[in-house]
Fold:
Amino acid sequence: EAQVTQNPRYLITVTGKKLTVTCSQNMNHEYMSWYRQDPGLGLRQIYYSMNVEVTDKGDVPEGYKVSRKEKRNFPLILESPSPNQTSLYFCASIGQMGAFFGQGTRLTVV
Amino acid sequence: AQRVTQPEKLLSVFKGAPVELKCNYSYSGSPELFWYVQYSRQRLQLLLRHISRESIKGFTADLNKGETSFHLKKPFAQEEDSAMYYCALGNTYKYIFGTGTRLKVLA
Structure:
């Protein structure tokens, strides 16, 4: 079964404490992407990756990092989280049939 | 500039009534357009691709290049259609989403 798996589903952390949200796909897609979803703003792209070791900024990359060491994994890293990064995050794996999304990670930064 | 506009934040209709969720886009070239649906507390799921011209769950969408629109339609709304709907314009790696329309189907 085609899957995009994100972990954790929920995370509460404190300002400045580094965290990583993992994303894994089993569809052998080259393209993966991270979005944040905020009320009234829809989904905004944070970073994307076109293949292993190839990543680029989306529309709202500030405060985030990513890596793509293997095709299946695309973790999102917040080196020093701040309260304005409180949001719902989605990872997507993108193929010919469209984008497949993870189940989302609800992050709260206090 | 590439853009997707969904003018309605909320659309309420009665069960059995027709539904039209509006989507307009701005794109130089041949767009690939999608509709995604997000049910409460669930991930986004692909509903329709304009290329496939399928009808999924009774929904259809026609790409109108002259009006740069890709409106989502259903002739008779069901309560289980209540969800958040996102129109998206995409190429292989960059998807641009609209701000979404929440559809509420009232009993």
Remarks:
- The CA atoms of residues 26 and 94 of chain B lie 14 Å apart.
- The mean pLDDT of chain B is 90.
- The radius of gyration of chain B is 13 Å.
- The longest strand of chain B covers residues 83-90.
